[in-house]
Amino acid sequence: MSRRMMLAAALLSAVQALQAGAADSAFKVPASKAELEGIVRAEAASVKGTLGVYIKHVESGEWVGLNENRRFQLASVFKVPLLLTLFKQADLGRVSLDDRVVLEGRMKTYGSGLLADMAPGLNLSVRDLALLMMARSDNTATDILYGLVTPEAVSSAVAELGLKSTTIDMSTRQLILGYLGLDPAKPLTVEELSKLPPSTWTSPEVLERQKAFASSEHNTSTPLEIGLLFEKCLKGEVVNRATSDRIIDIMKVHTGAEVILRYLPMETPIARKGGSLERNGENTVFNDSGIVWLPGQAGHLVICLFGNDLHEVHYELKHKMGLIARAAYDYYVSRAVKAPTGRG
């Protein structure tokens, strides 16, 4: 081997060693629940804002939390209780998933999704709207469904599910207007919102409304209570087993899986919903939540990671939240591997 080739081989070995060391450092497997809790606290403390964490290993009942009973702005995570309400209404015969809705211009809502950019006249089933709401976080589809099942039915379903710290009382349109400091009772169209003068966003009235909304309970819940919804679905307790499975199947089709799944193996199955709110080019609300299927017989994790009042660069926040999810994943997988498989 020539000297040049030997140097190249040595350099490659050094790079690989550094990469392996970085991976080991980033993904150190917690040796105990206490160590996992320490990772959660450390990562949360480094976030410029408030982080809420709820992680439960469903089969063992063991859980880890931080601010798990504190209310957080849900952003698009409120679509989870809305989806459960829709399927409950369908089971009661009040709504059919095969009913059709014709898209009208007045229905279009700002924010994420596809329908706001599509021509009026599109004929969609209620099932189509539910899929768009979860798979594309489509705000127009969400608001159509919110009006269809009614706000009262959503509040009733939340109460029946035993959620005492969850309030869902706004459509996506109302939520965004309130968050921006505008009047939710005056439903601006997409075009009207885009034409507001820049001075709108610096007016004292709007800034004061933004502060008031941030401290309100509109469309809020706790990491623990949203986690409970996912657990009920997993256990077949939302209406029945078949309905719970259909809800999970819809949540397995998702977009924007950049937090919980960020550092998990690519093939990891997850049923999830995230959400964020942005003002002045900065996410002040950033959430992810879902059910993670662990490999082999390791079971399932319910993970809810909520961030509010944030002043964090988005990729740094995703990194920190991703490390929490990875630590939980590694800990519970390692516990399953260490568990005895039979009598010795």
CATH-level-4 superfamily name: DD-peptidase/beta-lactamase superfamily
**Helix percent band:** 40-55%
Any idea how many domains?
A: 1
Going across the biggest sheet, name each strand in turn.
2-1-9-8-7
Report the sheet-strand fraction: 15-25%
Largest sheet: 5 strands, antiparallel
Explain this structure to me?
The protein has 344 residues and is α+β, with helices and mostly antiparallel strands. It has one domain: Beta-lactamase. Helix content is 45%, strand content 15%. It has twelve helices and nine strands. It has helices spanning 3-26, 33-45, 79-91, 126-135, 139-149, 151-160, 172-180, 190-194, 204-214, 223-234, 241-251, 314-338, and strands at 50-57, 63-66, 72-73, 100-102, 123-125, 220-221, 270-279, 282-293, 300-308. Strands 2-1-9-8-7 form a five-stranded antiparallel beta sheet, sandwiched between helices.
